[in-house]
Amino acid sequence: MPAKVDHEARRRDVSAAVWRVLAEGGFGALTMRSVAAELGGSTGLVMHYFASKHELIKHALELAEERTRALIPAATDLRTALTAALPLTPEATEINRVWVSSWDVALTDPELHALEKARYRRWRTRLRPLVIRAQTDGDLPHGDPTDLATALAAFTHGLVVQALFDPTTYTPKRLQHLLDAHLSALSPATRR
């Protein structure tokens, strides 16, 4: 009689192996073979859960989004939300490395492109009410809150990229300082 397999536990093991491959080598290193090697199993085992590399990549993007949601709490203020997106901890750095490495595959695959486009739209949508609150409180200028949320998301992601390429210059302390300085410069009270 074959041994009973806890497929949910096995799928979690495969997911953990996928994440370790991504964290170490990015999406360029993500193959059925690399996940199998990380898992200490066969490619057949990986293919039991993911029939193709495309499915594996989609799953990896889902994992990255799950980890991002867990890292970025339901922020009550704009600064907290933007700060949570920065690579200030080893875990946040790992998640950001995975996201940035995903851009290449997401730009060339229509389905993955649509998923990433929707993810960024959700991020901006999440920022919008925080922008409106900051505008109401007088911390941000009046104007289209959607445009301001887009600009702040872009600024924050720009800091992420700078920190990933040059962590010695863009330390967590400096990233927080740059974000605070940017928000302060936008404040109508500062601009008077």
Describe the fold and architecture.
There is one protein chain. By secondary structure, this protein is mostly helical. The chain folds into two domains: about 1-50, Arc Repressor Mutant, subunit A (Orthogonal Bundle), CATH 1.10.10.60; about 75-190, Tetracycline Repressor, domain 2 (Orthogonal Bundle), CATH 1.10.357. It is built from ten helices and no strands. The protein has helices at about 5-25, 30-40, 45-50, 55-70, 80-85, 90-110, 110-135, 145-165, 170-185, 190. Helix 1 (about 5-25) crosses helix 4 and helix 7 crosses helix 8. About 25% of the residues are buried. The model has no long low-confidence stretch (mean pLDDT about 90).
Give a quick precis of the structure.
The chain is mainly α and 192 residues long. It is 76% helix and 0% strand.
